[in-house]
Amino acid sequence: xxxxxxxxxxxxxxxxxxxxxxxxxxxxxxxxxxxxxxxxxxxxxxxxxxxxxxxxxxxxxxxxxxxxxxxxxxxxxxxxxxxxxxxxxxxxxxxxxxxxxxxxxxxxxxxxxxxxxxxxxx
Length: 122
Description:
Elements: H1 3-33, H2 43-72, H3 78-98, H4 103-121
Helix pairs in contact: 1-2, 1-4, 2-3, 3-4
């Protein structure tokens, strides 16, 4: 049954796209517009900060797709365990750091549950 693998993939991709777009518009662009003489004054540091911030988006999308492709190919559970671990740690960290429920953290935990269900029912 592909349902849970599809759910993990779709959820991971949705979180990644939202994090990429909203994070850039709401967090990074305003932060980079502020005048500073500190470490973010140098363009290479701003570029590095942007890359590190957006790396999470790439990982979440890739893991979601990897769970789905792994299921199509009849692969083992290693990718599922890795996805479950990274989605769970990311979701819990998001909720702990923000100290409140956040849609991104909740969706990451849903992606982790979907990856776990995919392994359990296949």
